[in-house]
Amino acid sequence: MFFQSSRPRRFHHEYMYVDERKELLKELERRNRQETSGEGTTQDSYHEQMQKRIAGSLRPRILRHRSIRYTALWVALALSAGVIVLFIILFFSLIG
Known about the structure:
The protein is mainly α.
């Protein structure tokens, strides 16, 4: 009790950024090794799994960012137009 030192926690790191192409390549290599060794899996399940992975990796992220950018542009234009209209109203109310 007095002479036992506590053990530090084990290090566990989860990646924030994952290279999907690299994982896909590893999966294809593993699949190729299984086919050459004779340990095949069902073709339909593999085909569905690869379709999901490829579809997930080819999402149009750039288009999503562009739509956000254009939305912000329209909001900025609407706000600036509103401020200009308020200044015009204030100007004419002070003059008249």
